[in-house]
Amino acid sequence: MQHLLSIEELDAATIEHLLADATRLKATRGSHETPLQGQTWAMIFTKSSTRTRVSFEVGIRELGGAPMFLSKNDIQLGRGEPIQDTARVLGRMVHGIIIRTFAQDDVVQFSRLSGIPVINALTDDEHPCQILADLLTVQEFLGGWAGKKVAFIGDGFSNMTISWMWAAKHLGFELAVACPADYAPTSAFLEKLHAPNVTITHDPVAAAKGAHVINTDVWLSMGQEDQKDKELAFGPFQVNAALLAHAAPSHIVLHCLPAYRGKEITEEVLENQASVIFQQAENRLHAQKAVLVAVAKK
After folding, report:
1. Structure confidence by residue, pLDDT tens digits, 89-98
2. pLDDT value for 82
3. Do residues 33 and 140 both lie within one domain?
4. Rounded Cα gap, residues 245 and 249, in angstroms
5. Contact present, 142 and 279 (Cβ < 8 Å)
6. Residue 278 — pLDDT band, cuts 50, 70, 90?
């Protein structure tokens, strides 16, 4: 494994290997395994972050490396330098690059031109590190995804939903996405996905019915905060106690955070599921350490 650019590009065996290694690294945290010893990893973030930044900085340090955080104001990308020039320069100075940005193509270009490992820490198209952490959480609380139904309630074509759909494609679990009609995956995407185990509905109750995992995210992704008309479409898609009454008795609720209580999820549900949701947040550290170990071997 040379890069982590998307869940789409992975396969079941690679996902399962990463999760097994994340489990091992979590259990042996503090054992001084240092595959990044002597390495410097650049973290290029043009989108703000709490969990992603902290988990990567801690993970790199725990694996023996040194993180170098670079915001858009710290480098010439923020002044219009072409992405290909930045990739070629950094590829000659650091040992790996972690990018959190808007365009998926920026991550792809870095991987093609830098000559070093590149990790997608979030783009508008995918959020692969988060999905690995989510799958690790499902494994810990439910024993895995075989025979389980996952429901995603909210924006049907966000980076989170897209990544979940590819995960379902690779791993074979049932995924029901409930979203407003105007925010559903495109027919072109669904044709490309070609996964009969993924269904799209505009009825949140239908998606939640019998689900073992209820997943949600903010209605307005980063950079969409001014799209109030979009937010108005999501009122019936709140994760609340009434919706969860239709889920499987032993269900869990996931939210990648930050959460807007009273919008996509109620205060009551978030607090009742806090042990799951904050373990999910912690699992970013362990899943990303597994990714760092995997790509650093190349």
Report:
1. 999 999 999 9
2. 86
3. no
4. 8
5. no
6. very high
pTM of this structure: 0.96
User: For residue 7, which amino acid is it?
Assistant: I
Residues in the chain: 298
The beta-strand segments (E) located in 128-248 are 149-153, 174-178, 198-201, 213-216
- Facing residues of 261 across strands? 265
Residues 230, 199 share a domain: yes
The angle formed by the CA atoms of residues 24, 174 and 143, to the nearest 5 degrees, is 30
DSSP element (H, E) containing 66: strand 66-71
The H or E element containing residue 118 is strand 118-120
Q: Could you tell me if 72 and 136 lie in one domain?
A: no
Indicate whether 27 and 118 sit together in one domain: yes
Give the angle 57-116-169 at the CA atoms, nearest 5°.
80
Distance in angstroms (rounded) separating the CA atoms of residues 62 and 175: 35
Encode pLDDT of 234-264 as tens digits.
Answer: 999 999 999 999 999 999 999 999 999 999 9
Enzyme catalytic residues:
100, 127, 130, 217, 256, 284
The domain tally of the chain equals 2
